[in-house]
Amino acid sequence: MSHTAIDARAMAPLTQDQRKADAYRHDPYMREGLRSLAAARDGETLRRHTFVVLKPDAVAGRRCALILDVLRSRGWHPVAATAVRFDPLLVRELWRYQFNAASAQRIAVVDPLLSSGPALLVLLEDLDRPDWLPASARLTAAKGSAEPSVARSTDLRTLIGRVNGLFNFMHTADEPADVVRELQLFSYQTGWSWCAGPLFGGSDDAAAPAVEVTLASLLAELEAAIPAHDLDVAASIGRLALLDGPWGDCARTRTDPARIDDWLGILHVTPLPPGPARWDVLTVLTSWIDCNEPGVLPLIATGTAEAWRPTKTDEVTFA
After folding, report:
1. How far apart are alpha carbons 269 and 249 in whole angstroms?
2. Which residue range is the domain that position 58 belongs to?
């Protein structure tokens, strides 16, 4: 008898992390994702495709078009897109194996941030990857860390002007196993029709213009729903200081980052203000919090692209 219905061999072409393989064999979303994407598990489709989520902060900061242009310039081309909304359950299940390392401050802020409007989910085809490297792993390596303290000048997040640890604008799947699991999670909201052509039915030359039309329409909808914002902490405090009520009082009397717990205390009992002021508060909060618990490691860490590089004695298969 076994505690999983997923054969170990099903995980072999999807991850280079044995801890992840073992955990995902017991993950219900992985099991459903393998079934949902059975037609795409042909040894090539899941290596060639990945996705990016342009989060609400990317919309507020008007970074979406820039992000897509940078991705295209590096070989990742949009082939399908849809809107998606985060809720607390989706956030915790999407980052189930990393959320244990999140600080209490980050947990307090992440839901108001990600629920501040729609996000854009874009399926990408990688046209520049080497044969041995999946699209998802190449994008993860190029994206760089969410932590500004370890950022490199060549990271995609640096090129698009990442502001802080939470205003980093995009989420991607680490490797093919995460593409499967996370697309399944999104599918409960989005269904599969939005990406069925590239993943299940093959794509054609006529699809590219249609995707660009879809992207333009979706971006217009998202930008209509989320006001443009400079995401500048000093400017945000200045604007908030003009308001009446607890947020205005906080901006006038608690301008030191060491007072972040006072701001979080207000967040616990007071709704965020409407319109651009909401993003003023979020800008302050995300700039001042500590994102991670000291000394606590995620259950599953982000892998490296080099883990996928075959050795001289190994042969990579994706059966």
Report:
1. 15
2. 16-228
